[in-house]
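batch_manifest entry 22 of 60
target: MYC binding protein
source organism: Maylandia zebra
requested by: lab member K.T.
priority: normal
notes from requester: please return tokens only, no post-processing; we will run our own comparison against the previous entry in this batch. if the run fails, retry once and flag.
--- input ---
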Amino acid sequence: MAHYKQGPDPKREQFRRYLEKAGVVDSLTSVLVSLYEQQEKPNNALEFVKQQLGAVGKTSEDAEALQQEVINLRQKCARLAGENKELKAKLQRYESVPEDGGTAN
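--- output ---
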């Protein structure tokens, strides 16, 4: 059976576009360039690639977790600032009351 070279396979092209759109091609290229640029090549290139890709994946997860933590801390800070303001106002009211327990006129 002869295999004739025709145009690019539409399924392959669709899959290639899918990988490009998802950032897979860029991530793999970046990892391979990093491996190429290593002065001392690692003994296990596959493990190097896995570690680099793992770090890439964790970065976005870590960033999301950190962004959520920032949101939570900002909300807590705003809540505490409001509470602080209320407590200062109460303290000022108590400080303005004379020590003998009478009302100020």
